[in-house]
Every structure is written in structure tokens, then in C-alpha cells.
Amino acid sequence: MFNDDGVENMSIQLFMPTFHVEECLVEIKECLERGWTGLGYKTVQFEDAWKQYTNLPHAHFINSATAGLHLAVKLLKETYHWEDGDEIISTPLTFISTNHAIAYENMRVVFADVDKYLCLDPKDIRRKITNKTKAVMFVGMGGNTGHYKDVVKLCKDHNLKLILDASHMSGTRLEGKIVGREADVVIYSFQAVKNLPTADSGMICFMDKKLDEKVRKYTWLGINKDTYSRTHNNGAYKWKYDVEYLGYKYHGNSIMASLGLVQLKYLDQDNAYRRQLANWYDEAFKYHKNLVGIVPVAKGCESSRHLYMIEVNNRDELLEALNKDDIYPGVHYRDNTEYAMYAYGKGTCPKAYMFSERVLSLPMHLKLTREDILHIANKVIQYASL
Ligand SMILES: Cc1ncc(COP(=O)(O)O)c(C=O)c1O
Description:
Number of helices: 13
Radius of gyration: 21 Å
Bound molecules: pyridoxal-5'-phosphate
Low-confidence stretches: none
Oligomer: single chain
Strand content: 5-15%
Order of helices and strands: EHHEHEHEHEHEEEEEHHHHEEEHEHEH
Shape: globular
Number of strands: 15
Strand order of the largest sheet: 2-10-9-6-5-3-4
Mean pLDDT: 95
């Protein structure tokens, strides 16, 4: 890899965000000149742009996907009168936010196993349904849709709510359409290394208008009017708002939304380049299937390609060897039932455990070139065994 001054920089990181710096600065400058960096203004513009892009009916900009996942569970629990100890089926192969969101609300995470796409396996979801099951939490691993359509059907058939953790899925399409409308709520992450990077932010998209209205209050401490509309309503600061709920400070701000507005314009183009990088990896590994297994993309899925994942016999050794060559892949993820908090689920998802010992995510970001991919792939082939 080469830096902007043309100096060769041999270190190859898993992720490295690319910002359209000048355009981002123009948007941010507008906020600074107007004297408005908080909730409202650019956050509203970004919500509108996101709805238009995704074709989802509602979108609320928040400070992280973690906050959004929490409120997704909370608002569904309140609305449908779920009780403490009721169950949500989720995956052990995810970032811990996914499962903490369920636990925050005193609900029980019931782990179901994954399929070859590393997404929840509908067959195992079915086995794990009890009379306490209220919802399924589906994670689109690395941008992959896995057996999403079957999961949607299963939820309908069993009258379960579907929460889609789309943290990796900004821009993912299934059969030509952005996924999401089939779920009850979709949560995106725009954290620093995601496909649509800001610094930290996210979006929560309920399909139900009432829940969208409610979540806006919940992300602003339960207050029933946002500061922007209070300040800009006839110039008078309307301090006599009401507080309807015990809410949180989870809303997004106009600086993050400025970055989001710019990065969104490039999302499809960026994801197309990520798919190109993935194709170069695929080609490089084509004749080495005895050494390197490739985690496949589901049929009909145009993945955002947040991740490119392989499977090998000697993952830890391979990781160490690559690090010595200044290549820094990642692991997505450690089986969550290996963590003390979720150890009660240990042994219930053997495939997830097996993958968590064998998978490796190779560098995947927009600064990589074909030469970089071939270099990484050659090193993987040199050290891998399957
Ligand atoms: C699958 C998954 N869910 C949730 C999150 C949490 O996202 P955020 O950092 O925006 O809270 C992440 C972030 O890494 C993630 O990968």
C-alpha cells in the first residue's frame, strides 16, 4: 500500500475508512456557521436521505447501533407486553452489542446455531422456539443475507417479531431490493469502520409509525419536543415541553449527520469496489480450496461486503504469521457463549463454536488495490492449511 505522498507503507490493516474530506468539511462548516451542531437540522436531512435510499418508511438517527438495538427491544417489549424472562432467539456469532440489547431489557437470549453463511440457521431457530419466545434477532453477517427470507417466513408463521441487526448491511440488496421492510425494526451502524463511516452513529428504522414517533422521544430523554423545533419555532424557546417517558440520551447530532450525508452519496459505489476486492480474493483462492475455505454469499444477495471471511484449520497460527508480515486481519467473532455472561449457552451452537475457532476476516477497505489483495492472498496460501 502507498500513502498519499506515494511512500510505500507495508502495514495492511483489516479496516480503514475513506472519507470524502472536502465535501464533509463543507457540510460540517454549514453546521458551525449556523451555530447548530446538535439534534435537528442535518440529522433530519440525513434521516430523509436514508429513507429515500433504503425505501424504508421511517428512520431515526441515533448515536450508535448499540443504542438502537437496545431501544428496538425495549419498545417492542413495551408495546407487546413481553415480560422479564421472555426469550429472544439470537446468534452467538456477533458483536456483543446484539445480545446485550436483549439482556438490558431483562429478556433471555436464547442462542440458535448458524449456517454456512454464518447467519442464523432457520432450522435451528425453529428448534429453539418455546412458548416464551417473542422475537428473533437476525444479524446480516458481513453484509450477507444468509437464509433471511426463510427467517422472515418463520417469524410470520410463529407470530414472532423480527429485529434486523443490519450493522454490516448498509447497502445490501436481496433480489435487487434493499433489505429491511420485512422486519419489524432495522438497526444500522455508522461507526468509524463500517461501510458508511461517520465516527459513531446509527439509524433505527421501525416499520410502525407509532413506534417511530415513540423512539424519537426515547432517544431524547423522553422529552416530547426536540430542541431544534423548540428553538426555531417563531424564534421563541419553548421551554414548556413535557416528559412522557424515562428516556435516554441516544439521539444523533448534526456533525455526524454531515458525514453521513456525504458518505451516503458514495455508498453504492464504495460497496461495488468492495465486491470487486472480494472477487479478486475469490480468484486468488480458486485453485487453493484444499487450503482455504471461503464463506459464501447467499444466492440473490448483493452483499455490502463489510467482510471477506475465510475458514482454515490453523487460524491462530495463520493470524500470527500474517501479523509478522504486517498484515492484520480480524476475527468475527468469538462465540458469545464463551463469554462469562452468556456461558449458560455453551455447547448449544456447535457450528458457531466451530466457525469461531476457524474463521478469519481478511483486510477489506477502499484503500486496497488488486496488488494488495494478491499479496495478502499469496501470504494466506503460503501459511494456511485446511
Ligand atoms: C453486528 C454488530 N452489531 C452491533 C454493533 C454495534 O454498533 P455500534 O458501534 O454502532 O454501536 C456492531 C459494531 O461493531 C456490529 O458489528
